[in-house]
Amino acid sequence: MARARRTAELAGPADQQVVPDLMEWQYGGCEGVTTAEILRGSGLSAGSRLTTAP
């Protein structure tokens, strides 16, 4: 959150506000990996989660 606040200070007007509902998510091993790379590594296709029953 500190990095986002600092970026906002440098980039925008002085009246920014923190919105707790808009926090960054942590994606663990998928951090910095594209959706295509995740799908390739999982053996799934982009539509498989929509067409495969749990």
From TrEMBL:
User: Sorted alphabetically, which SUPFAM superfamilies does this protein's record hold?
Assistant: Phosphoglycerate mutase-like (SSF53254)
Task: State one Pfam family annotation.
Answer: His_Phos_1
Q: Which InterPro entries match?
A: His_Pase_superF_clade-1, His_PPase_superfam
Q: What is this protein called?
A: Uncharacterized protein
